[in-house]
Amino acid sequence: MLFILVLILPSFVFFGIQGYNNLADQNNALATVDGVPITQQEYDAALRDRIERMRQSLGANFDAKLLDTPDARAAVLDQLVLDRALAREAAKTNVVVTTDRLREFLAAVPAFQQDGKFSYDRYKAFLASRGQTEAVFEQTLRNDLRKQALGQALIDSTIVPKQVTERIERILLEQREVRELRFPAEQFASKVALTDAQVSEYYQTNRKQFETPESVRVEYLVLSPETVSAAVSIPEPAVAAYYDQNKARFGTEEQRRASHILIAAEPSDKAAARKKADEVMAKVKAAPADFAKLARENSKDPGSATQGGDLGFFGRGMMVKPFEETAFRLKEGETSDLVETDFGFHIIRVTEIKAAQAKPLSEVRADIERELRSQQAQKYYTEAADQFTNLVYEQADSLQPAAAKFNLKMQSADNLTRSGIAPHLGPRMVEAIFTDDSLKNRRNTQAVEVASNTLVAARVLDYRPAAVQPLEKVAPQIRQVLERREAIRLAREAGEQRLATLRKEPNDAGFSAPKLVSRRQPQDLPPEALAEVLRTSADKLPQYVGAEISTDFRSATSAGFVIVQVASAKPSEPVAPAQRDAQTRAITQQAAAATELSYSEALKARHNVKILRSDLKTVATEESAAVAGTSGISSTSGDSSKSAGAAKSSAAPATATQQK
Q1: What is the residue range of 30's domain?
Q2: Least CB-packed of 76, 151, 227, 469 within 10 Å?
Q3: Do residues 141 and 262 share a domain?
Q4: CATH classification of the domain holding 272
Q5: How far apart are the C-alpha atoms of 486 and 489, rounded to whole Å?
């Protein structure tokens, strides 16, 4: 089960414990789970959360229209009811999430890490931005981990028999030789004649489609170190003083280049390794010029032996401690005595030394100014935060005094809805904007911390209640829908008539050139047509089949009707072992996803889930599976060593948070 976090921002954070409040208003319910309602407020918060997570994930490529579809809106509610059902199921179990498991999970969240390790300061900043305490957040996370454990064992144990995967593989790769004859809907558009009465009837029947949600136009201020940094000036003496105090930071540290010979030593046979090392050491002392030759012949470090033992340049902290201490103690050209490490015995020769060098102030002035400005801006923000919060509250009829006092740019957003999030306006800010005091009295909102070190206060300038758009405004849109629908119907009728004739009197006129298609390589054949082609039995060919294409496929001219002449069946080509293995993994993953979906649907049935809004009824199976699969989080770590036997071995990632 993958119901935890996306970008470490769990959906439950936004509807929280009150989402399980049995006293919620039944009249405001969109759905119920075991009779307990899910309210419009919970749904709006979850939708805002989904939008914000997609915005963070997609960045500049984010388009809010992705979630402004019936399927996407229904998917949000489907995830809410599933989460509620999981919570109720978990409450009945004896699954326990230990403190160590909780700490391990938190330590693996990238946004809580700094330099690859858990940062308690970042964790606290996240909680502050969400307005939550550690106890509340961690208890909610603990509950979510319990829910995750419910079906994970079932999913992890998914096994697909070899016979099944081979059968699926044959099905995926089976081929048909086909030719197409298209009846594009656009060719029939000129024959469509709509009346105003038809347009009006569609409007009256589907008024919900043309409803615009309540929206506002707002102005707002953002107080953060970034927005106040422009007012910070850094005098030249401060730059020079900082440079003098931190010269070590603005240069290159001393580096050593060394070669070594490693005699590997097993704990059980260290004496033999020591004897071998002494013998090699004697040869080095007898013929110092043969060091590289002796390294190639005797060293067990595969990374450097072929290079005559050369490790290249390295600084402090890159090698294991005994090796480093010796290398940085030797003079250029000197050779060490035997040095013992966990890897065995080393003979080290320093071949070159690069002394530490400091960069001149002129080269690092811009970096120093940037750092000092950032520090001063952070300090200014810390001092100004309380003043900003008090000022927008005390002078609640305008944001101008705060803008003037803190030299902030007034920003604006229009057409903001309860489920929409403009730049800088997180879910908590949107909630504050849509309070009665803000909407009716036009008072400033409170200063809301939307992110770490970022306060926002807003003021409603204009409020537009929810309303159905007038017919004259949406009539062109309705006419386009009806014309397209009717054109597709005419194309289907013409195609079906031609199909009936072809089945009686086969004729190749108008058909495309033959091509091979399969489930893996449909060759631009629309899915509806491909399904009909592959449904045709191989022993009944040649044959004609037809399919209505109700949606545009590949191009705007695809909708309509297509006739396909299925000429013959072709056996699948042999599959390379690597491709077969990849296919087996993919099939197993799909089977696990199907198991997860089945488990989810069974849970919803067991807990008597009811969707009360017809426009938010359950979406297609693929959409449900996709929603369930977007709430996972993974963390990876990697390390590389400079040379086996000399560089530090990679460390395992931490699994426990620091004590709080």
Answers
A1: 12-161+580-628
A2: 469
A3: no
A4: 3.10.50.40
A5: 5
Q: What count of other Cβ atoms lies within 10 Å of the Cβ of residue 612?
A: 14
Helix (H) or strand (E) holding 516: strand 515-517
Quick one: DSSP state of residue 245?
H
Please tell me whether residue 474 adopts helix, strand or coil conformation. helix
Distance CA 556, CA 353 (A): 68
Same-domain check for residues 566 and 602: no
Q: How many domains does the chain have?
A: 4
Residues 6+ apart with CB under 8 A from 213: 417, 418, 419, 466
Give residue-wise pLDDT tens across range 143-180: 788 777 777 767 777 788 888 887 777 777 888 999 99
Identify whether 589 is part of a domain: yes
Cβ atoms within 10 A of the Cβ of 299, count? Answer: 26
Reported as a single tens digit per residue, the pLDDT across 583-625 is: 788 888 888 888 878 888 888 888 888 888 777 775 433 333 3
Provide the residue type at 518 as one letter.
S
Distance, CA of 440 to CA of 368 (rounded, Å): 49
Q: Tell me which residue of 499, 504, 508 sits closest to 529, measured CA to CA.
A: 499
CB atoms within 10 A of CB 234: 17
Judge if 443 and 566 occupy the same domain.
Answer: no
The whole-model pTM stands at: 0.47
Which domain-ending residue is among 431, 465, 499?
465
> Which residue spans within 190-326 are E strands per DSSP?
211-212, 215-223, 251-252, 255-264, 310-314
Rounded to whole angstroms, the Cα distance separating 372 from 369 reads 5
How many helices (H) and strands (E) the chain has is answered by: 21, 21
266 with 189, same domain: the answer is no
Task: Report the distance separating Cα 445 and Cα 396, nearest Å.
Answer: 8
Question: 548 and 480 in one domain?
Answer: yes
- Which among 195, 183, 185, 182 has a CA at the least distance from the CA of 484? 185
Euclidean distance between the first and the last CA atom of the chain, given in angstroms as a whole number:
30
Give the Cα separation of 549 and 553 in Å (integer): 8
